[in-house]
Amino acid sequence: MILNSAFLQNAAGAFSWATVALFLQRAIVQGIPLLYGSTGEILTEKSGNLNLGIPGIMYIGGISGVIGAFLYENSLPSRDAINPALAILIPMLCSVLGSLLAGLLYCFLTVSLRANQNVTGLALTTFGVGFGNFFGASLVKLTGSEVPSVALSATSAFFKKSLPFAGKLGNFGTVFFSYGFMTYMAIIIAVVAAFVLKKTRTGLHLRAVGENPATADAAGINVNRYKYVFTCLGSVIAGFGGLYYVMDYACGVWSNEGFGDRGWLAIALVIFCIWRSNWGILGSILFGGLYIVYLFVPGSLSTQELYKMLPYVVTLIVLIITSARKKRENLPPASLGLSYFREDR
Amino acid sequence: MGEQKAIEMRGITKRFGSIIANEGVDLEVRRGEILAILGENGSGKTTLMNMLSGIYFPDEGQIFIEGKEVVIRSPKDAFDYKIGMIHQHFKLVDVFTATENIILGMKDEGKYNLKDAASKVQAICDRYGFVIDPQKKIYEMSVSEKQTVEIVKVLFRGADFLILDEPTAVLTPQETEKLFSVLRKMRDDGKSIVIITHKLHEVLALTDRVTVLRKGKFIATVNTKETSESELTEMMVGKKVSLNIDRDDPVDPKDRLIVKHINCRNIEGRKILDDISFTVRSGEILGIAGIAGSGQRELLESIAGLQKLEGGEITYINPANDKAEDLRNKTPMQIRNLGVRLSFVPEDRLGMGLVGNMDIIDNVMLRSYRKGKTVFLERKEPADLAQKIIDDLEVVTPGPTTPVRRLSGGNVQKVLVGREISSAPKVLMVAYPVRGLDINSSYMIYNLLNEQKKNGAAIIFVGEDLDVLVELCDRIMVLNSGKITGIVDGREAVKEEIGLLMTKSDNVKGGNADG
Amino acid sequence: MADNNKPVMTENESGKKVHEPLFHITKKAAIPWQKAWAVRIGSVVAALIVCALVTMLLVHKDPIKIYGTMLSGAFGTSRRIWNLLQGIAMLLCVSLAVTPAFKMRFWNIGGEGQVLIGGLATAACMILLGDKIPNALLIVVMLISSLAAGAIWGLIPAVFKAKWNTNETLFTLMMNYVATQLVAYFVNVWEVPKGSGKIGIINQATRAGWLPVIGKYDYLLNIIVVFVLTFVLYAYLKYSKHGYEIAVVGESENTARYIGINVKKVILRTMILSGAVCGLTGFLLVGSTNHTVTTTIAGGRGFTAIMVSWLAKFNPIFMILTSALLVILEKGAGEIATVYGLNKSFSDILTGIILFFIIGSEFFINYTINFRKAHKEGK
Predict the structure, then answer these.
(1) Which of residues 5-64 of C touch B (CB under 8 A)?
(2) Which CATH architecture has domain A2-330?
(3) CATH number of residue B500's parent domain
(4) Which of A52, B390, C31, C164 is deepest in the core (most CB within 10 A)?
(5) CB distance C351–A127 less than 8 Å?
(6) Which phi and psi (to 5°) does residue A242 adopt?
(7) Per residue in C16-45, pLDDT tens?
(8) What is the pTM (predicted TM-score) of this model?
(9) Last-in-domain residue among B423, B456, B479
(10) Contact A127, C352 (CB under 8 A)
């Protein structure tokens, strides 16, 4: 962050706390979808499943919420009749449902049918991105709008609603209170996930499944159930990333390909925070910052593209350093990517 | 000793593909007894117990506990019936601490509290005299510490039935004795203990009854008091042990391979070879005896160029020109390029010696594929050799293009040995070459070794069956915890003497010999 | 869902309820290849039926008509056939590239980035040297630099894999996006006209660095190159010493060390090859097909190639079929989308469905489900 403020000083000509606050705020906003994605993927990977379908699942989570909100908004006689609770609950439930089904599909193929995880995950990403763009475009057609996007501003308003006193607290308020509830939810989920992994029996069992499923099995842990539950839970959390993106970040406007490569960035974040979701909170803000730092520093359009490369380069460096140091606690779960069959000899 | 049947297995059959691991096996465990399951390697002991502990599910047969039929679908079910198994390959999570491993899978009452668990673990340790640090990570532990964690884990769960799979293979004699006294104490508490072993003296020293398996089938159950070593051996192997392996005197023996003061550490940094020096001569078979994990594998791999050594020298005297070549810390390729004719039949046949998914021709080619000047493979010669091996060694296979993974154990070994001797080696190293083989295949292997001996090869034979070692080898070197404890003449050696050398512990300190 | 743990309650003679697994799963001994392929083809047929049902739900047309539309989309005109063949060739080329790595159990999912970087190198040569050296020399320079660029992109993760066993799946994945951003950077540097955000057709007037067109068929060169490459790679993997070493390293590193193969050298060499062939794909895409470079020029082929290669069991000849299947599907679904006014992404959905079926079908090739009859007491 010190580095960034140095940049900012150059950017704005004169250093201003307001710029710093704005930068942080934008970085957090950018980071939240990544945080959802990476927390979901961490839980998934801790069960030994390398789910490369996460980018697709985030699309599915997003569009499912959009479909729910769209149907709800259009079922109302007028925009004023909208019920705040339903406006939030319906998209969230739809998102959960969509991501859950995608997670179940992945589990069925890789856990029950023991298919190759890489291939299954990539197929799921192909499917999920296609699913999102297809239904997104279909909704656009239904609305008959001129621009290729669906706008659900009424629903979005509820998702974006920040705390009332945020505006009164100056820079402090900007950095800490100017967000919709899903931002805080992401942070809470990340903290809870870290706590569960580290401090509970369930977490102990989950980590055992990902490290050494044969041992977990022999200890009486239902390996397949853990893989199913946490991969699906991870999918749902990742799906929230898609929902957050469209409802909060994009103000309820779904546009095809808008989500971009954030799913892969979320997977990078998993490595960057070495499978610790609480570290992922800071990591996501850093990644978010790297993603938008080009807006705050001088330079041509072209150098912006180099800044966008930074999250990936940083992740590569972390990946290399952890593998070189070989500290056992920082390596990927030992059975990551392998399917488990009890009767293998 | 109670007579009550605590566990009964009836007509258990288990197949793996075309291999029958257990066929119609009956077994009975009584409350408050120590039962040995005795059998040679590959007789199906572990598979049978894995069905009791929920790792495998039987294809046929029934299991009764306290007279009631039960179905054990998973290790969890086994725990519910208070059955706990200590596997030969430890089931521990490396990045977890001892305590975390011990409480793993337990859904007991109350809060998840590692501190409480650690003190409970400590209490069990104190009661039986185990020494472990509850906070230590498994990957920092020695083999014997890991086994201790495994045993504490089962005790922690309050198991009534303990199954131990070859528990003494990694222990020093003192640790073995300590283990046995714990087991006796638990038996007196009314627990039932099943110990899987192929060591007769342990059976006689420890157990109340013995169930003998042979080739997956139930042979008999006898009371230990009423039986003898020779009777048990007969049941185990099926006939009186009179091996009658040929042994000619070495012809014109010359020093071929001289090993001096080599040292080696394993990945965990434990010293696995400690100042090893010996000489192998042409035309003789040098046997290597020792309990499993005494450094046999590392020794052979050191000579083959697969281990990093910490000093000492390995010298090969080339019979063609009597030139001495230093082999230490050379790669297998460099050794070969020096003109050293060294063949090696490793212990792990499909994991190291052969490639399971490749056919016989491609496996035969492993050693020679570099032949020829072009970038392309020359498969004609290997195909002829493969056919020759199949014919000469009577390999049972649909043809030379069958993947070796689909052959039975004996035939896999024939392909491997056939390939290794086809290059007319001057030094031939074989590790457990008859493990899992039937009698006929075993004799074929012995004959092949004798043939190579006659041709002037220097042979190093790592074996586990002392009867074979004393009948086949010219000299026998005994390894014990990475050290040589003696080299005896094969013609004068007695099994008991070797057994003593294998387990004596005057040169190892305290209980940490393995650590 | 927990396959072998599904209990069912049955009653035995004493009337007491006993838990029994409904079924349990065992590994199959290898089944004949004809049977294995029958299962795979069966799964494709099943998938096509499901795809037709999905399409019917959306467009309310009978399935025959839908498939007719698909076929016409793929084969309808000679231009479409050429497009199709070109699409197959490019996908096949990336699939060929990643296959040696997969045979070595090195999960190179960085084909996308390796193609991009090869394309970028080609475009760089065209832009920077376009009017400075003779055309033939230029093409040679383009070829060499694209191969080298791809090779370097493949080599970097391999170096770390060989040295520290760094996870190659995650490494190559990250390298894709580094490549994407590099391309994005240079697109901005070389954009024509300024501010457009794209390079446009390079050397449109001079055609410098454009690969020669055989006859009047634009894509024929690419198709021939890839076709030849398929058989070269097949021979390389099956009949060359290198290919043999790759197979041994992939099956068992222990065995490889035992027979004196330098495992690290094989990993590095194979990834150079894998990356270079990806670079070649970039060269063909930029030099022959598109005459420009964009961040999406690889078009997800780096990922699709993984499935092509895996579905074909890493056999280059079978890969002709699997890549054809996926491209025909894509073009056909694209046509459905156009004709019935659906979105282009429809093809991704259909592709996904077919892939799920084929992926799932492997289970029935490798495993048997044994149903356990309700237990009866004999006596």
Answers:
(1) 5, 7, 12, 16, 18-21, 24, 27-30
(2) Orthogonal Bundle (1.10)
(3) 3.40.50.300
(4) A52
(5) yes
(6) -65, -40
(7) 334 455 666 777 766 777 888 888 889 988
(8) 0.83
(9) B423
(10) yes
